Structures are given as structure tokens and as C-alpha cells.
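User: Before I run my own analysis I want an independent prediction to cross-check against. Here's the chain; please return only the C-alpha cells and, at the end, one sentence I can use as a sanity check.
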Amino acid sequence: MSTPGTRSLNPFHGLTKPGRRAFLAAGIGWGLDGFDWTMYSFALAAIMTSLDLTLADAGYIATAALIASAIGGVVGGLLADRFGRTRVLTFVILGYALTTAMTSTSQDGTQMAIWRTLQGFAFGSEWAVGAALLAEYAKPETRGRLMGVLQSCYALGWAASTAAYLALFSVLPNNSAWRWLFAIGALPALAAFFVRRHTHDNVEPTATPYRRSIAGLFTRRQAKITILAMLLGVAVQGIYYSVFIYLPLFLKTVRHLSIIGTASYTWAAVAGSFLGYALAGYLHDAIGRRRAFSLYFLGAAAAIALFTKMPVSGTMMGLSITFLLGFFASGQAAGLGAYLAELFPTAIRATGQGFAYNVGRGLAAAAPTAVATASGSLGLANSILLIGCIAATLGLLVVWTLPETKGLAIRSQATSAPAESRAVTARPDLDHNVTISRHV
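Assistant: C-alpha cells:
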């Protein structure tokens, strides 16, 4: 029998049956994102050899995909606010599953860039749509931990791609193994049918014209929050991309690990990420958004320094450091789902989350290119450390400029919210009274 204390630790406490289905839909989508997206880093060394690409070429392709994801996120957010979260999420899952599979057909760098760019567009849409869908079902007091558990689904997808990498590259030649790795990326398309049939939105779509949705992000009171939220997105994703896009390549070329060794260290990072995501949610609910982000940013900088400066090959100390790298440098992203949902009102929530997260991602796309470029003179290890620490510093500066939103009842802007809820949750530091015309 559960007690009030155990119920308070349960991220699903008070979540309705439709809310649990929304979690399952968003979790499937985000986990499949992790599965499809991390394939590139595993296959990178084989792709470079097979398609005769340089490290700089690989960095440019990664950057192009991330820029496309920024555009996709904004477009997906606009469509989700206009046509509903569930409907858009269905097509997004289909889109990135199919474009991942088509990546396997690439015959040169140009084709690889085209398919990765299209996949990035679909990938960018998923987070904003799924996060808005779930955040609108979550209770204010448990939103951080629920969104943290959602973020941990990415680590499950990453674990699945690690297993697929280990299985395929252990039995197939490298020049064909990477193609099969991307080909199985079509399987997640089946999840779209579950999402469409069993999931429903918790708020009504708006009839707001697209131009007014964008304009709502830059009203006098909202503009500052929009820009700072976008910079937070730059910092969070700059840390992640500076480290994890190159993690398998770093382990192979700098630490000289085998396929099994690379997979083992990646498992450690994945385990750290999963735990880091989940615990971050509880931390956000306990001490607030700004303090939790700060702790993770400082931990990420320290973990990157340890990972790049200490010899990690073949030691328990190395696996422990890699675990901490995953815990902090990946886990720091867990707070974004709850925080961004709380920074934007319902009528423009998916648009705002899509803009902040994905324009931030587009700017953070400079991180892998910067690492690749700087590696020519600094080496890969020092380049990862430099760019990762710059991103962590930016995050610390930005998060203390944004308002604290712990406990905010975001559905107070929804048409279905009761009047007393709207009165209780009024916040002078957040422009949640933005009114956007429902008429063209």
C-alpha cells in the first residue's frame, strides 16, 4: 500500500489514463529519436572510410542535420499548435523513421548530407510536439520528474542503437554494417500507428495564424524569455553535441578501443545518461529549475575534463568516468522539457518550445563543426573539452537570468482550466497572459 511519501516520489502519481497514454506516445517518440539519431555517431568511422569523407566533412553533415532540425522544430511546433499535438507527432515519427532508412542508400557525401538533413528536419519536430503533449497532462508538483523520466527514454533508444551497432559490426564488414544499421531505422515507423490510435491532446488546437504564433513569442513581455530560452537550448545541446557525436570516434581513434571496447564504454555513458535524466527530474522538483541546471552544468564541465584528460582505456576508473560523463553531460538536458513548457503560454507553447529548443539546436550545430575544425590544431580531446566548457559556461549565465518556474500550473492558460486555477498561478515574471487572436 502506497503512502503519501511514496506517492510523492512517483512521477506518474495523479496522471490520468489519457495522460499515461500521452507519456507512452511521447516516450516512444523520444526513445526512437535516440535510437535513430545516435546511429550516425556509431557508424561515423565506417561512413568516413566507405564514402571517402574527412572528419571536417562529417562535421559539416552533422551540422547540416542539426540546422535542419532547428527549422523542423519551429515548423512542427507551429503545426502542433494549429492542428494538434498527436496528429503532428504521428507524421513526425513516420518521417524520421523513413529518412533514417533511406540514409543506408547513400553513395557519396552529398547523398548522405541530403538524407541526414531530411532526417534532422523530422527529428527536430518530435521533441517540441511530444514535450508539449505530455507537459500539458503533468501535475505542476511532479512535472520535472515526469519530464525527466520522458528524457530517459532517449537513453533507452541510445542503448538499443548500441546493441544494434555491436551486433551488426561484429558479424558484418564495416562497409555494409553501417548500411544495415540505418536500414533497421525504418522499424520505428510502426509506432506511429499506436500514437495515432490511442493518444489524444489535453488542450484544443488554436486557430491562430502562423505569423501571429511567431509574433506571440516576441511581445514586449515575452521576447526576453524567448531569446533567453533559446540561448539555454544552445548551451544544453552544445554540451551534448560537442561530446557525444564524437564519442565512438574518440574511443576508437584516441583511446584505440575495439568494437567491443567502444560498445562497453558507450554502455557506461548510456547508463549514466539514463540515471542522470531520471534523477534530474526529481532534483528540478526539489530545488528548482535554476539550481538543478547549475549543478548539472558544473558537473558536465568537470566530467568532460576528467574524460578527455585521464586515460580511461581498460580500467574500472575509466568506466566510472564515462558513467559520470553520461550522467552530467547528457543528463543536464532533462530539465528542458518542463522548463520550456513553463516559460510559454498554451496558445504558443509548442511553437515556443520548438523555437527555443530547435533554434538553440541550430546554433548549437556549430559545436560539432567547431570540434572538428579545432581538432586539427588542438587535437580531438582538447577540442571537445574547450567547446563543451564554453557551452556549460553559457548555460550557467543564461539560467540565472531566466525566472524560476517550479510549481507553475501551465494549464491555467488552457480553455479547460478552472478560473480559480488561473488566479492562483498568475506569475508577474512570465507573460502567460499573452492573448492571440483566434481569427484570421
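Sanity check: Residues 280 and 334 are 6 Å apart (CA to CA).
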